[in-house]
Amino acid sequence: MSDTLSGVFAALADPMRRRLLDDLDARPDGATATELARAVPVTRQAVVKHLQVLVRTGLAETRRHGREVRYLARPASARPAASWIEERASAWERRLDRLTTLVGARAPDEVAPGRGPGSPPPVR
Amino acid sequence: MSDTLSGVFAALADPMRRRLLDDLDARPDGATATELARAVPVTRQAVVKHLQVLVRTGLAETRRHGREVRYLARPASARPAASWIEERASAWERRLDRLTTLVGARAPDEVAPGRGPGSPPPVR
DNA sequence: CCTTTGCGCAACTGCGTGGTTGCACTATAC
DNA sequence: GTATAGTGCAACCACGCAGTTGCGCAAAGG
Hints:
Chain A is mainly α.
């Protein structure tokens, strides 16, 4: 999972982590692990681990104030993940459109020149 | 993890699964597990398991033709996940905007959306 | 008929990880 | 000073999962 995309997806796959991220997102000046742990049915240590995952994937960052460590949300780091999904989904929809227009045109011989080089659309 | 959002995120967290999804996405009429397994350095069984995960989360569907089972991509099922991210990211940016205007408008050249995680805005 | 090919099921292993407990350390409060 | 949170580190356990191997079975193709 050294790949950053996998990291983001994996981080967001855990409901607890999404919950913490939301909690963090609601506090403009962040929160400490112990604060967050009070609102959640797990140990502070567990919360810390989750926060470390978020930090490691860039979804959160830390800032020290005296002896306490405040965590801040950085949801923008998840944008590439959202883009990945969106690319596939829209590509699929484009293909669907092409297909339906093709069927509607009911003329296999006047098929439009495929997209790009190397990938002709052999509808089989 | 019975929650569907977690399922989608978890499914996409695996590079192999994303790879298979892309491979599937490239074939308009789907592909069988054995076909996909030929292009990938793992067993057919492993591919089948991955495909089952994709089906279970709605990211793919199956269709039987005779004795073979073709898998089709359904990337649109991941849209809710993308939306989840996008909501948080944009909310965070709104908050940032509010903050910067509050601090004093002399700021940042750009707070525009759509950049990678590598260049965090100058939150100071 | 028999052979081949592809699918499905089950068991097993290795590893990552969510969660816990316990303890040591350090900065604040009294 | 002492007491009191708050943080960090480490060991440990349970569970899930990616991946493998092995086998059985059904559908095509001779």
